[in-house]
Design brief:
- This protein is mainly alpha-helical.
- Among the domains are: 17-289, Serine Threonine Protein Phosphatase 5, Tetratricopeptide repeat, CATH 1.25.40.390; 348-437 and 527-560, no CATH class.
- 39% of the residues lie in helices and 7% in strands.
- A 3-stranded antiparallel β-sheet has the order 2-7-6.
- It is globular.
- It starts with 34 loop residues before the first helix and ends in an 11-residue tail after the last helix.
- The relative contact order is 0.14.
Length: 586
């Protein structure tokens, strides 16, 4: 069985987001839907189920385009801008540029936040999922077993939305039903421990009713393995220092339990270990595995972007991300997708192919030949994720559509190098893409749980098990195994492995925050953003390697950081009502 799950979902049911009452928690979602008709037959109910997937998996994904209310997604890969994976040095009207330069705010002037999430849409998705749970029993031509499965799917999707809010906001309001039309009760934020317990409960209940696989006609639906993955990720964030601490990142008075557990417990790391081991045990029994055929570039490229591969538990599919409406900022074959390149800091996290450190000349202008030599020496995961200046895409070999000349014409910022290639044009999700327009974004990939185990075992003092799990990921990358047993050194190397393995997969921003790295404000989310700047033979641009003269590392801007940004702001229009306590510093 192959577990790469692709979500091809149409917006079958119309949602009217603008009709929300004063509070997102007041509106009884479902009042806009003709539930008796929708849940009259199995065929009709599939539309509501598909909508539940689309709502739940879509919200907060960085590949999706932006709209005026910022509820459907985040423009231009905001998370990658904020985490220093790419340099936000183009398009100063983008959310990513504005936040990276000036920080997140609870009110952008319209009552909406300028942040990393469309907070309100989380509850639109959650309400819809409860609506399905409440009405699926009405379907006359669906078996009892099928109804149990659908309810389990909805519980897993609700847990996913809560897990995404958990790591962004801390404690949030817990809703366990569709609110009635006359229920105007303001539901306050729940403490961290209660939100975590709610996520775990939903995942445990979902896992009981979910299958391990589906017939091909229904591929794209949540399996038991996905429920286990959601639980494991939540427990991992619960174990990391941001929440697993006696003191919060900022004093929040009697609300400290919304942003901190109030104690450190090593048992939280063991909970994360047990949950991640359960994911891998399930995967091993159900044909899901790390792709390793001893061809690291292809193996990693396939794992991150190829449909129907054995490593991804669930993914989101965009059919045409170049159409200007769905993630066109992620496609390197367009001006928008090519405008912001990999950052210099991200580049330095990759090793050379033999596992040794790569060095770069710094601010001194150096001949392009030196760049070409060094960039070609980089490890396969870099080559599967980026396209070097003047060099054909390594992850689309012998394909003229991905040649440096053709790609230059797709994105011409700064002569096709300074803005588009520089430290690497973003090509990660386009392995062997040819003319493919659809983009497959992995939501849960099995590598995450091996790195969870590497990190968590190190924190409980078991370096042997930590290195064993880390070796699985480095073996696939073609890199030698690590042997460090000092927990501080090993922790740093594991964190570096996270940065490389999950480049632009919406991990880095939250990993860095929850690790509470000491240099987060100077060499992480905040601090100097750098990239390569080139000079050209003709003084203005370069179509291929022969047209480059020299390169050097240059600072672009200083990214903003404030301790308030460990967690995200709630919309001011929600916080101002009084039931929703705003996170500190906003």
């Amino acid at each position: 069985m192959k577990n790469y799950i692709i979500i091809f979902i149409a917006f079958i049911i119309s949602l009217t987001l603008s009709s929300c009452a004063d509070s997102i928690l007041q509106k009884p979602f479902g009042s806009d839907l003709m539930t008796d008709s929708i849940f009259s037959t199995k065929q009709k109910s599939l539309g509501a189920i598909a909508q539940a997937y689309s709502n739940s998996l879509r919200a907060g994904i960085t590949i999706l385009n932006w709209d005026a209310t910022r509820v459907y997604g985040l423009r231009s890969g905001t998370l990658s801008h904020l985490s220093d994976e790419i340099c936000a040095d183009k398009y100063n009207w983008e959310d990513g540029w504005m936040i990276s330069h000036n920080g997140m705010v609870a009110n952008d002037g319209t009552g909406m936040p300028l942040s990393d999430d469309g907070f309100s849409f989380n509850y639109v998705a959650i309400r819809h999922n409860y609506l399905v749970i409440d009405n699926i029993d009405k379907v006359v031509d669906m078996t009892a077993e099928e109804k149990i499965q659908v309810k389990a799917e909805m519980k897993a999707l609700i847990a996913y939305r809560y897990e995404e809010m958990f790591k962004r906001y801390g404690g949030v309001p817990i809703i366990d039903k569709v609110l009635s039309s006359d229920d105007f009760t303001k539901i306050p934020r729940s403490p961290l421990k209660d939100v975590l317990a709610f996520i775990v409960k939903l995942c445990d209940e979902a896992a009981i009713g979910l299958p391990n696989s589906y017939p091909d006609i229904y591929k794209g639906r949540v399996t038991k393995g996905v429920a286990l993955a959601i639980k494991a990720e939540a427990l991992m964030f619960a174990a990391r220092p941001l929440f697993n601490s006696a003191t919060p990142y900022m004093d929040f008075g009697h609300n400290n339990n919304l942003i901190c557990f109030g104690d450190y417990q090593q048992s939280r790391w063991q909970d994360a270990i047990d949950a991640s081991e359960a994911v891998i045990t399930w995967a091993t029994a159900n044909g899901c595995q790390i792709i390793n055929t001893s061809n690291p570039l292809d193996d990693y490229g396939k794992a991150c972007s190829a449909p129907n591969n054995s490593e991804v538990l669930i993914a989101y599919n965009l059919e045409n991300p170049t159409d200007g409406n769905n993630g066109n900022y992620y496609d390197p074959r367009g001006q928008s997708g090519a405008a912001n390149s990999m950052s210099y800091n991200q580049l330095t996290k990759y090793a050379k192919a033999d596992g040794t450190e790569q060095t770069w000349p710094g601010s001194t202008e150096t001949p392009y030949a030196d760049y070409s030599t060094r960039i070609n020496d980089m490890e396969p995961r870099y080559k599967a994720s980026a396209m070097g200046a003047g060099i054909d895409a390594w992850n689309n070999p012998n394909d003229n559509a991905w040649s440096t000349t053709v790609m230059y014409n797709k994105g011409t910022w700064d002569g096709g190098a300074g803005g588009t290639e520089a430290c690497g044009r973003r090509v990660k999700f386009w392995w062997h893409a040819g003319n493919r327009l659809s983009l497959f974004f992995p939501i849960y990939r099995l590598a995450e749980f091996y790195l969870n185990l590497a990190e968590a075992y190190n924190e409980v003092g078991n370096s042997g098990k930590s290195l064993e799990n880390l070796k699985v990921i480095r073996d696939r990358a073609g890199l030698p195994a690590l042997t460090d047993t000092d927990p501080t050194i090993l922790r740093s190397k594991i964190q570096r492995e996270w940065a490389v393995e999950f480049y632009e997969e919406a991990h880095r921003l939250y990993d860095v925050k929850h690790w509470k790295l000491s240099d987060i404000g100077t060499n992480g989310i905040g601090g100097p953003r750098k990239k390569f700047v080139f000079t050209y033979v003709n003084g203005k641009d370069a179509y291929n390697a022969s047209a480059y003269l020299k390169y050097s590392v240059k600072p672009m801007y200083n990214a903003f950081w404030s301790p308030s940004q460990f967690l995200s702001p709630f919309p001011i229009k929600e916080a101002s009502i009084g039931y929703l306590v705003q996170n500190p510093g906003y």
